[in-house]
Amino acid sequence: MSVAAALPAGASVPRTGARLLAERMAALGVERLHLYPGGTIMPTLHAWIELGRPYLVARHEQGAGYAALAAARLRRVPQVAMVTSGPGVTNLLGVVADAYYDSTPLVVLAGQVGTADLTGRKGVRQRGFQEVPTPDLVAPIAKACLRPWRPEELAEAFDRAFELARDGRPGPVVIDLPMDVQRREVSAEPAIAPIPAAPPLREPAAAAVALLGQLLAQSERPVLLAGQGVLQAGVGACHALRRLAERLGAPVATSLLGVGAIPGDHPLCLGYVGHTGSGSANRAMQRADLLVALGSRLDVRQTGTRTDDFVPAGRIVRIDVDAAELAASRVRVDLALQADVGRTLEATLATLSGPGATRTAPWLETIARWREELPLDGYPSGAGCHPAGLLRALDRMTRGRRAVVVTGVGHHQQWVARHMTFDAPRRVLLTSGGHGAMGYDLPSAVGAALARPDDLVLCVVGDGSFQINMQELGTIAEYGLPVKIVVVDNQRLAMVSQFQKVAFGSDPSTGDRARFDFAGFARLYGLPASEARCDAEVDGAIEALLAAPGAALLHATVDPACDVVPMLLAGQTPDAMWPWHRP
Fold first, then answer.
1. Across the strands, what pairs with 428?
2. Preceding omega of 566 cis (within 30 degrees of 0)
3. How far is it, in rounded angstroms, from Cα 99 to Cα 113?
4. CA distance linking residue 519 with residue 531, whole number of Å
5. Torsion angle, CA of 417/421/424/430, rounded to 10 degrees?
6. What pLDDT, on the 0 to 100 scale, is given for residue 5?
7. Within 10 A of 474 (CB to CB), how many other CB atoms are there?
8. Residues 321-372: pLDDT tens digits?
9. Domain chopping of the chain, boundaries
10. Cis peptide upstream of residue 425 (ω within 30 degrees of 0)
C-alpha cells in the first residue's frame, strides 16, 4: 500500500489550516483517506502524507467514494472520501446520494477555489477554474455542507462533520474547503474540545413497548420485517431479533438491505420482500395479522404501489430512529416507535412470558406450503450457466468462511440476495439500495478488502454494472487486494430490459448487447481469469477462482432469457406478483 514516509526528523512543518485538519483527522482515528487527487485538495492531502498516514488513490472519484462507503458500512464509523473541486465534486455526487439514501456515515472533503474567487451571489456562472457551487449541489442529498472561512475553523468543522455523519440516522456530510483556507497559516492555536461520544441510544417508550409485547403475544400470523436498521444497530440487535422470532415462532422477512439480519438458512427466515423478493415472503407479509417493521422504510420497492391495500387484515407497527420516516409513512401505521431497534427488541423480549411459539404453528405450516408453491429458481434452462445454480454453488463452496459479498445493480443483485445465504456479521451483503446505482460493485469491493483484510471478498456483478467502474481493476492490481470477481454475463441491461419487455413489448435499447471479453480485460491488469459457459464448468471454475492466491475473475455466461421472476409490478399487491414465466 502506498504510504508516504514522514518528513525527516527536525524538518519544519508550517502550521497551516491543512496541517491542522490532517492532525485532527489522525487524532480522531481516521485510518485512511479514499481519494482521487486534484489541485484544490492538494494542501490537505500533502499534510496527510507528511504525517505518514495511509491513503487509497482510486481510478475515478466514484471509485474512491464507493470504497469509503463500503468501509463505513462494515466498520460502522464515518469514513473519509477526498476529491478536488469542480468535476471532482460532480463525479462524486452519486456516491453522496447513495450514502444519504442508504444511511451510510461518510465525510467528504471537497476542494474549492479560493474565497476571493467564489462566485457567491455575484450573478456570474463561474469565476474560479473548476468552481462549482458545492453547497447548493449537495444540499438535498447530504445531512449538511460546511464551509470554513478561516484556517482556525478546520478542526472544528471536521469534528462537526464526523459527529453529524455518525449520530442519529447516519448519512453524508460534505466539507467545502477553499484553497486559501487550507494554505494559510494558523494565526493562533484554536481551542479544540474533545469530540463528543456518540449520544445514548434512544430508548422506546415503556407504554409503547408494553403494547407491542401484547400485540405479539396475541398474534396468530405475525411477520417481523428486518430492515438495514437492525444491522446498523449491531450484532446485539441481530441476536435479539433471532431470540424474539424463536420465542414467538414468528417468521422473519427482510428488506434487500436487511439481508443477513437473520441467518439465511434459519428455519424462520422467509427471505427478502418486495419488487423482486421471495413470493412466499411477500405473501406472508401481505396476509399477516401483525407486521412489525424494524428499521425499514417500507418504500415502494417493498410494499408495491397499492398502499391502500397493504396488509389489509393486520396491524402495522413501525420502529425507526428517524422521526421523519414515521411521520411521513407511505402506509398506514397503527403503532409507531421512534427508538433504537436493538433497545426496542430487548425491551420487548422482557415483556413476554409463558409459552408462545405454539400459537403460530398453523401459520408456519401455511408458509411452508407457499414455499413449495412459489419456488425462486423458475428460470428457463437454456444456453449458458443457470443463475441459481451458479450462485448456489458459489455459496456452497464458500459457506464455511467469513465473507463480504458485494454486488452491482441488476438481475445479478437480486439473484445473489435470493440464492446465497448471509448471516451478519460473519457473512455480509453490500449493495446499493435506495439509489440503486450501477457501478457500486467493484470499488465497494476495494473498500471491503481494505476494511476486512482477513475476510473473503466476493464481487458478483452483471456485465452492464461492471462496465460502469471496471477501471478499478487497476486499483485492485496496484494495491494487491485479493478480491474474487464473478461476472454474471447475460448480454443485457437485464433489469431494465425486463421492464421494457413487460411494459412496451420489446427491449431495443437494453437487450442483445455485444459480448465483451471480461477475462481478457482482467488479464491486461495482470489478474488471472477464467470462463464458465455451461453448468458443467461451474464447480471447476469456482474452485480455480477461490484457489487463486490473490485477485481473480470468473466470466460466467448466463442465458439471456432468464428473467427475475416472480416480480412485483405496479398495481399489484405483494401477494399477487407477476407470473413465473412470460405470458
1. 404
2. yes
3. 25
4. 7
5. -30
6. 42
7. 16
8. 999 999 999 999 999 999 999 999 999 999 988 666 678 999 999 999 999 8
9. 17-183, 206-373, 387-557
10. yes
Among 304, 293, 256, residue whose Cα is nearest residue 102: 256
Identical fold between 17-183 and 206-373 = yes
Task: Please tell me the pTM assigned to this model.
Answer: 0.93
Nearest to 95 by CA among 62, 138, 73: 62
* 279 CB-near residues (< 8 Å, 6+ apart): 370, 374, 376, 566, 577
Stretch 119-138: mean pLDDT: 82
pLDDT reading at 582 higher than 50: no
Instruction: State which amino acid sits at residue 369.
Output: R
Cell of 535: 453448468
Percent of the chain with pLDDT over 70: 96
Q: In this structure, which amino acid lies at residue 112?
A: Q
- How high is the mean pLDDT of the chain? 92
CATH of domain 387-557: 3.40.50.970
The pLDDT value recorded for residue 2 is: 37
Identify the CATH number of the domain defined by range 206-373: 3.40.50.1220
Q: What is the pLDDT averaged over residues 247-263?
A: 96
Which phi and psi (to 5°) does residue 483 adopt? -80, 130
Residue 385 confidence (pLDDT) above 90 = yes
Rounded Cα distance, 21 and 176, in Å: 13
Helices 206-218 and 235-248, axial angle in degrees (round to 10): 40
From residue 39, give the alpha-carbon distance in Å to each of 111, 180, 183, 215: 8, 12, 12, 60
Do 313 and 291 form a contact (C-beta atoms < 8 A)? no
285 vs 222: CA distance, rounded Å:
8
What is the per-residue pLDDT for 578?
73
> What pLDDT is attached to residue 479?
97
Q: Where are the beta strands (DSSP E) in 332-482?
A: 335-338, 403-407, 427-430, 456-462
Look at residues 581, 576, 545 and name the one whose alpha carbon lies nearest to residue 565.
581
Q: Among 75, 2, 74, which residue's Cα sits nearest to residue 33?
A: 2
Fold of 17-183: Rossmann fold (3.40.50)
How far, in Å, are 412, 469, 494 from residue 462 at the CA level?
6, 12, 9
Percentages (nearest 5) of helix, strand, coil residues in the chain: 40, 15, 40
